[in-house]
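Table S2 (text version). Query chain:
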Amino acid sequence: MINETYKQRLAAKSVIRELSEYATARGAEIGYENVFDYSLGNPSVPCVDGYTRAVIDLHETLSPAELHGYSPSLGNTKVRGIVAASLKKRFGIDYETKHIFMTSGAAGALAHALRAVTKPGDVVLTFAPFFPEYMPYVNDTGARLSVVPANTEDFQINMEAFEEMLTPEVQAVLINSPNNPSGVVYSEATLEKLADLMRQKAAEYGHDIFLISDEPYREIVFDNKKAPYPSCFYDNTLSCYSFSKSLSLPGERIGYIAVNPKATDADILAVIFGQISRGIGHNCPSSTIQMAVARVIDQTSDISVYERNRNLLYDELIRLGFTVVKPNGTFYIFPKALEEDSVAFCSKAKNYDLILVPADNFGCPGYFRMAYCIDTEKVERSLEALRRFVQTEYPNR
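Corresponding structure-token output:
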């Protein structure tokens, strides 16, 4: 008998994927260059040259067993050491090889982290707006995701609501900064308050509360700034990283978990992740890809493209009368729709070949997301369509 849970999900497909499929079909009719597709967060800039050269060199110089054999269950030991050394140099935290676990992207990292620090029936808190896939990521472990309402003024954390919802059942808090979909980077003040509350409640309840930090956009930060590193603020932090966005390698599915060396059981958590892999099948990411990313560990693709696109869209949205918090990073912008029903708003936009994502599933009804990881030339051409849409559909705004 087929599992009914998954059969029922067939009726609730990802809105983002549905819109992306619509954009592709519409592109077949009028040319995809004429569809202003802001649906999918797929990096648009090339990966770094060094990565490509590394892959070629590995294929030309390594033995078949080294190149194509299984890596150790915790990941390539040398690569883990390189990741630890990079993080130690960048953030001043004494990571060692034993604190790093290689994964199949940030999704694989979250799958392990969540299972390591929760059990069925526990509560995991996250903050709106949030990536909709957090629902199955958490709920399929047997734990339950609970969402703290958004602070729509600046999309920092709603601390009053967080404190109220930080009950004894909460075993983990899941954050995403820089944030998908808002593009906001949590400030040092926000992370300090978050950490203070978690320490206070952990002491009060007599059990650890882990911070699971989802960080695939860590390197994509604008205005010559850097994103504060959550593990610097809270000892019981598991940093879940992906090279998908920083190196433009989403299809390679490679990332890691970095366990704060001061966390409870820090020296054995990576081994625990290895045991979790036995049950969920996420073990042993590609040997070649692990070795290749290690050679470009501190490089990024040309993220300046995303900053230019951010500026173009933000300026035009403000001119057109939208309420929007200026993104600090990622390649997303998150305006308030010009009517309460953001689904209806985004449906109308399709008539102008603008593909926008309503934010109901992100925990913020009335908002919409634009993923501006597209060519700047296309962003520039989309502005006229955006103007026509607003002026025609909302003349009395």
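Notes on Table S2: The mean pLDDT is 95. The first strand starts at residue 36 and ends at 37.
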